[in-house]
């Protein structure tokens, strides 16, 4: 999930405040894009392979290719904030030879109805995006894209934390995840991290497996690897200096860990992607 969001490229097609009328009916016209529908007002039915009752505060994510019929009754016409996008994943390169591929689908549920502050936050973001978008305006395009990135991030977070029984564990997970991301350059033992947060090491591992599908040690290793990779590509620091900056105990452990992630030693990556650069060692 993180890699998708980090390397996501957005192309805005249309943003619209759809105000319907009593007994309104329609079908999804643009099925080749990613669509977000935020229900601001009214009630109705969205029909895919089954009927989905629609009410205020619901968010529908329609992946490309999904057909849908929509209608409402005579009493409460729908008002829908609509965002239509093409999404791509970018494989970056230090020498600007990255590849761009269309994204088939975001890891989002078809229906999401967050409560409380999360719901208010999403409603505010949809409102801001629709109100501020000006087609053809470069400034508006950039600002709107930044809000859409924020929206996608908030949707992913809301999706994970929506179940009441998971909120306490999810909040703890986010705190520890943030701790790892900020303190990656320092020596860290997972057992010490568990003690700091007053939980057992097994529970710490379980919440990381639940929400990130990897161990806290594995996630920390990925963070260090990503920082090390950027330093290899964009600086002249030698391997020993990079190992120290990224929290590895020494150059040997850095090279071993890097090869485990990348399939090759760090020195090979530096020479391959930056022919003009060689390790000062």
Automatic annotation (TrEMBL):
InterPro entries: AraC-bd, Homeodomain-like_sf, HTH-like, HTH_AraC
UniProt keywords, alphabetically: DNA-binding, Transcription, Transcription regulation
SMART domains: HTH_ARAC (SM00342)
Annotated ranges, domain HTH araC/xylS-type: 174-272
Coiled-coil regions listed in the entry: none
Organism superkingdom: Bacteria
Name of the molecule in the record: AraC family transcriptional regulator
Organism lineage string: Bacteria, Pseudomonadati, Pseudomonadota, Gammaproteobacteria, Enterobacterales
